């Protein structure tokens, strides 16, 4: 399992193999990495995982794009991972994937973004890359699997004055989410509206 891979010091060689292996093997490696990174992230960061994963986000294979976004989501759930994702300028690439034709790529990319935007640096990188329009498009799309993650990401951007200003104009998009069949989406939309309406 994950602990065995970690103990055997296999993370750095696995990251290296991502650059050269066949697609099917890359998928397996990404799956293994996502399990290990729940436990420990610093070894993968030291092995240069983030720039390699950033490159995989543009891979022609849906499975590889999706899994790379998932591994980045695992990485950005750790504090040091969030920093690496911002420093390697992964946020603009993740934003590009919000328009991916594959729903699971959208879900994982939006999830990774949501974690990265927890830091002030992540938020300012996202604002610089004009994150709001593609995230709003996912919130407006009623069937979007990524809707929940997109609402949560925008709630974080509402913490910035310019983010809140922009989102005030789109308050009705969140208002419509209060009718969503998913309770989690309704709750997230309520929190978003509270953040948007907040008066300093």
From TrEMBL:
InterPro entries: ARM-like (IPR011989), ARM-type_fold (IPR016024), RSP14 (IPR042856)
Protein name: RSP14 protein
Pfam families (UniProt xref): HEAT_2 (PF13646)
SUPFAM superfamilies associated with the record: ARM repeat (SSF48371)
Lineage: superkingdom: Eukaryota
Gene3D superfamilies the UniProt entry points to: Leucine-rich Repeat Variant
